[in-house]
Specification:
It comes from Crocodylus porosus (Saltwater crocodile). This is FHF complex subunit HOOK interacting protein 2A. It is a single chain. The chain is an all-alpha fold. The chain is about 55% helix and about 0% strand. About 20% of the residues have low confidence.
Length: about 700
C-alpha cells in the first residue's frame, strides 16, 4: 500500500492528490489501522501500524497532517506510545513520535491539531454539557457548566489549585520514583510511570514517558523530540505546551528526584573532577571506569539531566524558556537546593555547595542563568546597608559561608562566587559590588582650588601622599622603583592625545605603590627563577580581554561618574560581599595557604572588571577615602604594618621565607616543620597578590590608553 502511494505521487504533478490517496483519506483507512494496532490483532499488528504511519508521513511529500482523517488517527496513535515502558514496540513508537515532531518543526501551525483538536470537538457539542477535567487540558478558554468563558489567567490559577488538591491526596510522586545505582536512568514505579493518568495523553506526554525508557537510545530520541517541540516559534504553541502539559513539572520532578538520590556524603573533589557531562552521552560503565567512586553514576545521571534542562531552555521559544526556567527556580532551586544550603551540618553544607558550584559552572542558558542568579542573590539593586544585609537570607548565608569556621566550606563557597562572577550576567556584579559604589561616597570630595591645579600641573596628584614621605615606604630608593624594568617600557608614550595628567593617577605610581607595599626583607620571589612579574602581565592581559568581551553589552561608563552628581553625604558601606573579602584579606597572615589563594583569586577577578568605579575603589592607591572607609589598598597597608612588626620577632625570617617558597614550588623536598609556617605562607601570597594587582592596573591603563 505504501509503495503504491509513493509511486502514485511520483507519477503526478506536485501537490496533486491521486485516486489511491483519495481512497485512503475518504475511507478512513488510517482509522481502521489504528483500531487494529490498538488491539494488536493479529499479534504484532501494533508494530506494523506504527511503522506504516512513520513511513507514510516520512515518504509522502504532500502535506497529510492537515487532513482530519490523518491527524485524528495520528493523535490517537500518539496516545498509545509510552503507555508501557520496555515494550517490543518502543523503537517503532519513538520513530513515529519523532517523525511527527519533525513535521511540526517544518509547519509549526500544525501543532494546533494535536493540542487543541479534541477540545474543539468537545466545545462544538455545546457549552452546556459538562466537560471533564481530561478535556479541559489544552484549551485557550474554558467553558463552564453555565456557559461562561474563563480566561487563561483564571484557568491557570484553577489548574494550580486543582493540582494542589490532587497532590494532597496522592503519595509524593517524586518519592515513588525509585532510583537504583545499578541503573543509569530513573526508573519509576507503575503508579508514577504514567503521566497524569486522569488526563488526555498527547505528544508531549508520550515523549515524556519515553524519556524514562531503560533503553538509553530511546530516552535520548524522546529528549530530542521534546527539544523540537519547545523550539516551535509560534507563541500559541509555546503557551499550549507550557500551560496544557506537565512538561515543566516532570522536568523539575526528575531533577529533584535525581538530586535526592545523590549520596549524602560526596567528596567535593570528586564532584569537581568528574568529566564534562553531555545529556546525549549519558553512558557509563562502572566496571570499566578506573576512577570510579561511590555515587559517581548518580552524579552523572543528575548532571546529565540538568544539562538537558539547560539545553532545552536554551533552545526553547522565548516565552516557553522563561516559563521552564522559572519552574526550575521555584520547584528545584527553591524547593530542593535552598534547604540543603541553609542547613547547619558542615558535611551537608560542603556537599550541597560543591554541587551548586558545579551547577553554576554548567549553566549556559541565559534565561536559566538569570533565574539562578535571582535565586542566589535576590533581585535587589539599591545600595546595601548594614541593617538589611539579611534581606535575602540565602545570599546572606552564602556570603557568610565565605568566612566559615570550616576552611573547606569557605574555599568551596569562594570558588562558587568566583565562577559566578565570570558568568555573562550584569546583575551578578551589580548586586554583589557595583550598587554600593554607584555614588562614589567612599571618596572625600574637596572642590578643586587654584593651589590644587598648580600641583597637578607640576606632575603631582592633588591630595596624594608621596610614597617617599610615607613611613611604610622609607626603604624606597631609585634602585627599586622598577621604572627601568622591561615590562614598564610598554607603557604608552606621552602624546597630545594621551597626556599623562589626564585626571588619572599616573600608572607607574600605581604600579610601584603595589610592588613596593611588601618590604624588601619580606620578599622572596627575586631569589627564585620563573616567579617574575612578566607572567602576571601575560595572564592579566588575556583575562582582561575576556572580561571586556563579557561586559561589552552592558554599556558601562568609560569614566567615573561626576562627583557633583553623586550623593557623597550618604553613609558608605562596601556591601556584605566586599566586607567579608576585606575581613578575610586583613587576616591573610593568620589563615591557611589555600584559603588565602582563594580569597586573593576572587579579589583579583573583581579587579579585572572594566568598570571605572571598581577600578578606582580597588586599584587606585591615591583615592581620597572618606572617614571610616576602607579600600583594598588600605586593607593591605594595615596588613603590611602588622607584618613589619611581626618580622622583628622571628629570627632568620628571610631564609625561612625563601625555604617555604621553594617548598611550595616543589624546588625543595619536604623537611622538618618550620615555625610560623602560616605567617610565612601568608607573606608569600601577599607578595604575589600585590604583583598581580600591579599587573592588572598596568594592563587596564595600557588598554584604555591605546587608541
Amino acid at each position: 500500500m505504501l509503495d503504491i502511494l509513493v509511486q502514485e505521487e511520483n507519477e503526478r504533478e506536485s501537490g496533486e492528490t491521486g485516486p489511491c490517496m483519495e481512497y485512503l483519506l475518504h475511507h478512513k483507512i488510517l482509522e481502521t489501522l489504528y483500531t487494529l494496532g490498538k488491539a494488536d490483532c493479529p499479534p504484532g499488528m501494533k508494530q506494523q501500524v506504527l511503522a506504516f504511519y512513520t513511513k507514510l508521513l516520512g515518504r509522502i511529500r504532500q502535506p497529510l497532517l492537515p487532513h482530519i482523517n490523518v491527524h485524528r488517527p495520528v493523535q490517537k496513535l500518539i496516545r498509545l506510545c509510552g503507555e508501557v515502558l520496555a515494550t517490543p514496540t518502543e523503537n517503532e513508537e519513538i520513530q513515529f513520535l519523532c517523525i511527527v515532531c519533525a513535521k511540526l518543526k517544518q509547519d509549526p501551525y500544525l501543532v494546533n491539531f494535536f493540542l487543541e483538536n479534541k477540545i474543539k470537538a468537545m466545545t462544538s457539542r455545546g457549552s452546556a454539557s459538562v466537560i471533564s477535567e481530561e478535556v479541559l487540558k489544552g484549551q485557550d478558554s474554558l467553558i463552564t457548566g453555565r456557559g461562561q468563558s474563563v480566561q487563561p489567567e483564571e484557568r491557570s490559577a484553577t489548574a494550580r489549585a486543582e493540582h494542589t488538591e490532587k497532590a494532597d491526596d496522592l503519595p509524593q510522586q517524586a518519592d515513588d520514583l525509585s532510583f537504583s545505582l545499578d541503573e543509569l536512568n530513573v526508573t519509576s514505579s507503575p503508579e508514577a510511570s504514567a503521566v497524569r493518568p486522569n488526563h488526555d495523553y498527547n505528544l508531549v506526554n508520550s515523549l515524556l514517558n519515553l524519556t524514562r525508557s531503560p533503553d538509553g537510545r530511546i530516552a535520548v530520541k524522546a529528549c530530542e523530540g521534546l527539544m523540537l517541540l519547545v523550539s516551535l516559534p509560534e507563541p500559541a504553541a509555546a503557551r499550549c505546551l507550557m500551560e496544557s502539559t506537565c512538561l515543566c513539572e516532570l522536568l523539575t520532578d526528575r531533577l529533584a528526584t535525581l538530586y535526592k538520590a545523590l549520596p549524602q556524603l560526596v567528596d567535593p573533589l570528586d564532584i569537581e573532577t568528574i568529566e564534562a557531562i553531555n545529556w546525549g552521552l549519558d553512558s557509563y560503565n562502572y566496571k570499566e571506569d578506573a576512577s570510579a567512586f561511590p555515587g559517581k553514576r548518580a552524579l552523572i545521571s543528575f548532571f546529565s539531566w540538568f544539562d538537558y534542562c539547560d539545553q532545552l531552555i536554551k533552545e526553547a521559544q522565548k516565552t516557553a524558556a522563561v516559563t521552564m526556567a522559572r519552574a526550575v527556580r521555584e520547584r528545584f532551586f527553591v524547593g530542593v537546593i535552598e534547604p540543603q544550603l541553609m542547613q547547619t551540618s558542615e558535611i551537608g553544607i560542603l556537599t550541597s555547595t560543591a554541587l551548586l558550584h558545579r551547577i553554576v559552572r554548567q549553566v549556559t542558558s541565559d534565561v536559566l542563568l538569570q533565574e539562578m542568579v535571582y535565586f542566589l542573590l535576590g533581585e535587589h539593586r539599591e545600595p546595601e546597608t548594614l541593617t538589611d544585609i539579611n534581606r535575602h537570607p540565602l545570599r546572606h548565608r552564602l556570603i557568610e559561608h565565605c568566612d566559615h569556621i570550616s576552611d573547606e566550606i569557605s574555599i568551596m563557597t569562594l570558588r562558587m562566587f568566583e565562577h559566578l562572577l565570570q558568568k555573562p550576567n550584569e546583575h551578578i556584579l551589580y548586586n554583589l559590588v557595583l550598587r554600593n559604589l554607584e555614588e562614589r561616597n567612599y571618596m572625600e570630595y574637596k572642590p578643586p582650588c587654584q593651589e590644587d591645579k598648580d600641583i597637578v600641573e607640576n606632575g603631582q596628584i592633588a591630595g596624594a601622599v608621596d610614597l617617599e614621605e610615607d613611613p611604610l615606604f622609607t626603604d624606597l630608593s631609585p634602585d627599586n622603583t622598577l621604572l627601568n624594568q622591561e615590562w614598564l617600557s610598554a607603557s604608552p608614550p606621552i602624546s597630545p592625545e594621551h597626556p599623562r595628567n589626564d585626571g588619572k593617577t599616573e600608572v607607574h605610581k600605581i604600579v610601584n605603590s603595589f610592588l613596593c607595599l611588601v618590604p624588601d626583607e619580606a620578599k622572596s620571589s627575586y631569589h627564585v627563577e620563573g616567579t617574575g612579574y612578566d607572567t602576571y602581565l601575560r595572564d592579566a592581559h588575556r583575562q582582561f580581554r575576556d572580561y571586556c568581551a563579557i561586559c561589552l553589552r552592558w554599556e558601562w561608563l568609560g569614566s567615573p561618574r561626576s562627583l557633583e552628581k553623586c550623593n557623597l553625604e550618604a553613609p558608605f558601606f562596601e556591601g556584605h560581599f566586599l566586607k567579608v573579602l576585606f575581613d578575610r584579606m586583613g587576616r591573610i597572615l593568620d589563615q591557611p595557604y589555600d584559603v588565602n589563594l582563594q580569597v586573593t583569586s576572587v579579589l583579583s577577578k573583581l579587579s579585572l572588571f572594566p568598570h571605572p568605579h571598581i577600578h578606582e575603589y580597588l586599584l587606585d592607591p591615591y583615592v581620597n577615602l572618606a572617614s571610616g572607609c576602607r579600600s583594598l589598598f588600605s586593607v593591605i597597608v594595615r596588613v603590611v604594618g602588622d607584618l613589619m612588626v611581626r618580622i622583628q620577632r622571628i629570627p632568620d625570617f628571610t631564609p625561612k621565607l625563601l625555604l617555604v617558597r621553594k617548598r611550595l614550588l616543589g624546588l625543595e623536598p619536604e623537611g622538618p616543620i618550620i615555625d610560623h609556617m602560616t605567617l610565612l605562607e601568608g607573606v608569600i601570597v601577599l607578595e604575589e597578590f600585590c604583583k598581580e594587582l600591579a599587573a592588572i592596573a598596568f594592563v587596564k591603563y595600557h588598554t584604555s590608553s591605546t587608541p
